[in-house]
Amino acid sequence: MPTTYKVLGQLEPQSTTGTLYTVPSATQAVVSTINVVNVGSTNSEISIAIRPAGASIEDKHYIVRQITLNPKVTFTYTAGLTLGATDVITVVSTNNDCAFSAFGSEVA
Q1: How many domains does the chain have?
Q2: pTM of this prediction?
Q3: How high is the pLDDT of residue 96?
């Protein structure tokens, strides 16, 4: 089972919610870090959720919920998240000016 270290996803959602990363089928992933940068000029509230097997989002899926991110500031979430096949990382930014990046590894 080879392990590939990589940028798992990068997204600047053009609507308030977007999919940062979906684990491919027959694959597992370890997300070491998620960075969020507010590239805009106003505050934004950000949220990050992990949806097992692409489930509809519920309160229990949030790992970060409505944190205010000032302009030109970076928020880093480091946790070593373990994800199974088809799990989804969903991100939310209230002003569409936040760039999200997920870094980690895939095991196939």
Answers
A1: 1
A2: 0.95
A3: 87
